[in-house]
User: Fold these one by one.
Assistant:
Number 1:
Amino acid sequence: MLLDDILTYNEEFVSKKEYVPYETDNLPNKRAVIFTCMDTRLIELLPKALNFKNGDVKMVKNAGAILTDPYDSVMKSILVAVHALQADEVFVIAHHRCGMNHLDTDGLLSTMQENGIDTKSIQSVDKDLNQWLQGFDDVGNSVEKSVDIIKNHPLLPNNIPVHGLVIDPATGELDLVTRGY
Ligand SMILES: [Zn+2]
């Protein structure tokens, strides 16, 4: 079981003080907050490709680095990073070949049913699920939209630059979409 593997490993990690190289505080040394995708390929690659170490940045993730609602938990996290944790620069970093690109929402809903979610439960959701689950058609446009929502947020100070980038999940190469300065 993965949980047991984790707990066993963790005991050793702590007792051998393997945490020492990662000691830092909760304020981002590079004073930035990164909003990116939860993709597995980016876990280590993104920080390495951007030269971020433990302690350097605040990082917020979701599926696709898609921000659609200016009052969702992603925007809240960005505002907390800026107002409470000294971040003074925001980076939206989506990636090529993202699972949210052309996401088949009908397919996702059928998979949910195959996974045992019954029609009644699906109908009980008070939302347009196809719209709520939707991904994006063009990664650059999606980044621009997220940047726009953040940049124009009434609770974000005007002097905070909001940048938009797309990373290659194989090589780590960045394409600049929006230069926020
Ligand atoms: Zn992705």
Note: The two ends are 48 Å apart (CA to CA).
Number 2:
Amino acid sequence: MAAHRSGRALVVREPGEVVLEDRTVEAGGGLLVEPYFVGLCGTDLEIIRGDLDPAYTRYPLVLGHEWSGRVVEAAGGFAPGDPVVVEGVFPCSVCGPCREGRTNMCANYEELGFTLDGAAGPAVAAPAHLVHRLCDDVPLAAGALVEPAAVVLRALTEIDIAPGSSVLVIGDGTVGLLAAQLARMWSPASVAMAGRRPAQETLATTAAGVDDFTVDVPNAEGYDVVVEAAGSTVAVENALRAARPGGQVLLLGIAGHGRSANLLVDDVVNKDLRIRGSFSYTAAAWATTVRLLNSGRFRPLPLVTHRLPLDRYSDALDLLATPSGEPRGKILIEMKGTSK
Ligand SMILES: [Zn+2]
Ligand SMILES: [Zn+2]
């Protein structure tokens, strides 16, 4: 029989119903990868609640779009046990956007953990060309941050961060922390963060290299670049306010399907603002993120604050949904040992 793995999977049967179920995943024509670490994020909560645009989800669904693992069986130039990450967006490669390299806008959108079963299960089968080898000295847990980092990196490359500029990140979740860390590669003079929880300050300043952390309102006005990573409509409004005349605003957060922000038209026009949105990541951004991780220039592991076994998935989801007085970075589910 072809390579396969059976075991428990974290399944959203329909919005509001999350269970552990037995699943079997076969390699099919692809490479079989056993997940070791699966990161949870706010988007998983939106999938569970049914808040995401229905065009981007399919139920029942195995969760898990941020993850790393090991190759099960030799194939496609990989050896068993190779540490890898897998591009979650499966581009069709033939539509107009794919041909232009904008694989994030593929007209035949399919993504692990959204429309395809994700990594919080016994295995993932993927085309070998979407599988990326990690260096042996890269902690496998760090690989689980490649997905959110690729989203952030792709967005940052779409704007112009001049050396010496001032950057403000609004939002203190993992995406905000990654944005602060990765923005450093453009050599800005300063990176400030306007967060929501005082407990995040240490994580922001030590793990993400933030120079100046404030709660709710930024310390200053007139930033060259403002990155909205909070995923709320108020954060979008604050971002437009905090940018300097001629500045740039990057919208990274997803505020929820159908929600609107108050657009202060005067601010946008009179301040000559450039506003940019960015969705997901391209194949190129993914490859760059893996390269940065393998070279040691990108070290996201300090952003991981919690690791829980699959059995404790509901504790993990509670941790994510309910802010506590503790610092909270990336929450990982440890999958190893759940398949057979
Ligand atoms: Zn995510
Ligand atoms: Zn396509």
Note: The CA atoms of residues 58 and 115 lie 5 Å apart.
Number 3:
Amino acid sequence: MSLLDGRVAVVTGGSSGIGRGIALAYAEAGADVVVCDIREEPKEGGAPTHEKIESDTDSSATYVELDVTDPAAFEEAMDAAEAFGGVDVMVNNAGIWRPEEFLEVTEAEFQGMMDINLKGVYFGAQAAATRMVESGGGSIINVSSVNGIFGNGNYPTYSASKGAVRTLSYSLAHGLGGDNVRVNAIHPGAIKTKIGPEGAEETSEEQMAQLNAMIPLGRQGEPDDVAGVAVFLASDLSKYVTGESIVVDGGWTSWR
Ligand SMILES: NC(=O)c1ccc[n+]([C@@H]2O[C@H](COP(=O)([O-])OP(=O)(O)OC[C@H]3O[C@@H](n4cnc5c(N)ncnc54)[C@H](O)[C@@H]3O)[C@@H](O)[C@H]2O)c1
């Protein structure tokens, strides 16, 4: 028996990076997966996530092209999950990051980031919770960031959006506990993905060494490091855990 046998998971931003890592880990743990994204091809290359799941695991997967800024779009994802038996696990992972100068941020830039990082999580959770309340329960996992815990003057909109995801998760856990829907947040630290703006300079060896020196475990994380915690939160191992915020950062925030 695997941890997620018989479960159905929906993962937004599941084509690349952390979402891809979570989707693959869920499938390996026995879940069928609905991968939602605005792009099918992983940013880092390789087979699309749903194809890799179908070829490498015993689980089923499908891809739904979905922009999380459109609340109505989640219905198609929920229907795709219904075809597998109904959503048990919803991972609101899709997000963007960019450095910015606070005094120059425009309203459109602010709104664009909030629409993906916060509104996308809000209405993704709402769509999933609606089905979960009807079916008797489920687990919602919202991907925030260590920047949802501490601030960073280099990306104030991102930090604000991620802090809101944390307190949203607490509120939903409170509101939905009576319906057996658990809601938790994950706060990744520095994870090796291609989240930076297109064309941005690669992190230099020197910057990498400086960053690693601040992380007690001495290295940046891999999507797989976050996926393990997402499997825990999706499974019955965490059946009495809700309204929790789990930091996955190699110890970085523990001594800041
Ligand atoms: N990489 C890190 O160091 C790090 C740290 C903390 C938090 N996070 C968070 O983890 C999550 C995943 O980030 P990642 O590093 O894997 O990034 P990524 O860019 O590698 O992957 C994000 C995926 O989300 C998709 N996406 C973007 N906008 C979308 C939209 N409007 N609708 C649907 N899909 C959309 C992208 O196409 C991409 O496939 C984000 O919420 C991010 O803020 C990442």
Note: DSSP finds seven helices and seven strands in the chain.
